[in-house]
C-alpha cells in the first residue's frame, strides 16, 4: 500500500476506532502488516487467519483458553470470512483493550453465549467453567464442584429466575459487582 493509502487508512481507523489515537492506530496497522506477512497467502495480503490470531493473543496477552480464543476470533471476524482484516483488527482491539464497561459486558456475554441464542445456559456456564478452572485431584468429583459453581452463579446473577442468563441479567449482575464480568472464565487481557 502506498504511503498516501496508509495515511488515509490510519486517518479513517483513528475516527472509527474511538479508543485509540492516531499514532496508536498507526502502530496497530504496522503490527497488522507484520502479522499478515507471517500468515499464509490464502488471503492475498488482506488479513490473517485464526492460527495467527490465536498465536498473537496468546503471546501478547497470555490468553490460553482455546474456546475463548476461538470465540474472540469469531467476534473480531465480523464478516465471518475466516480472515481478520485491518479494520476488524483495530476496532476489535479497541473494545478488547480499552472498551467501556458496556462494550466489555457485550463482548464477554457474546463469548460465554456459545450457541449464540442470546442466553448463557447452565450447560454453557458448565462448559466455560470446566475449560477455565484448574482441576485439583481431590476426593470430590470435579464435575460436581463445577455444577455447584454454576448453581451459585445462577443464584447470584439470574435476576428473573428463569434458569439462564439473559444479557439483562448479566448486565445487572456486573453493574452490581464488576468482578462478575469474567465470571465464567478469563476472556479479557490483564490490565497490564
Shape: elongated
For the termini, the CA-CA separation is 33 Å
Please give the share of residues in helix: 55-70%
Oligomer: single chain
Low-pLDDT sequence parts: none
Please summarize the sheet with the most strands.
2 strands, antiparallel
Strand content: under 5%
What structural category characterises the helix and strand content?
A: mainly alpha
Q: Count of DSSP helices? A: 9
3D structure, described in words:
The protein has nine helices and two strands, in the order ααααααβααβα. The protein has a two-stranded antiparallel sheet. The radius of gyration is 19 Å and the shape is elongated. With 192 residues, the chain is an all-alpha fold. Helix content is 60%, strand content 2%. It has helices spanning 3-16, 22-38, 50-61, 66-76, 86-98, 101-112, 122-132, 142-157, 167-176, and strands spanning 119-120, 165-166.
Task: Pick out its properties.
single chain; 2 strands; mainly alpha; elongated; 9 helices; two-stranded antiparallel sheet; 192 residues
What is this structure's SSE topology?
Blueprint: H1 3-16, H2 22-38, H3 50-61, H4 66-76, H5 86-98, H6 101-112, E1 119-120, H7 122-132, H8 142-157, E2 165-166, H9 167-176
Antiparallel strand pairs: 1-2
Quick structural overview:
The protein is mainly alpha-helical. 60% of the residues lie in helices and 2% in strands.
Amino acid at each position: 500500500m502506498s504511503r498516501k493509502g496508509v495515511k488515509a487508512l490510519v486517518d479513517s481507523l483513528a475516527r472509527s476506532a474511538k479508543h485509540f489515537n492516531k499514532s496508536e492506530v498507526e502502530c496497530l496497522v504496522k503490527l497488522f502488516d507484520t502479522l499478515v506477512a507471517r500468515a499464509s497467502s490464502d488471503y492475498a495480503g488482506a488479513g490473517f487467519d485464526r492460527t495467527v490470531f490465536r498465536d498473537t493473543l496468546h503471546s501478547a496477552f497470555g490468553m490460553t483458553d482455546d474456546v475463548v480464543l476461538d470465540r474472540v476470533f469469531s467476534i473480531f471476524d465480523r464478516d465471518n470470512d475466516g480472515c481478520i482484516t485491518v479494520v476488524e483488527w483495530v476496532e476489535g482491539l479497541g473494545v478488547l483493550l480499552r472498551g467501556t464497561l458496556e462494550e466489555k459486558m457485550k463482548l464477554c456475554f457474546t463469548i460465554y453465549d456459545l450457541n449464540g441464542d442470546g442466553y448463557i445456559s447452565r450447560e454453557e456456564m458448565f462448559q466455560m467453567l470446566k475449560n477455565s478452572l484448574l482441576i485439583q485431584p481431590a476426593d470430590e468429583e470435579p464435575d460436581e464442584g463445577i455444577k455447584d459453581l454454576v448453581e451459585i452463579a445462577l443464584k447470584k446473577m439470574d435476576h428473573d429466575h428463569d434458569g439462564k442468563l439473559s444479557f439483562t441479567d448479566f448486565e445487572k449482575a456486573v453493574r452490581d459487582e464488576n468482578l462478575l464480568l469474567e465470571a465464567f472464565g478469563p476472556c479479557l487481557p490483564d490490565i497490564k
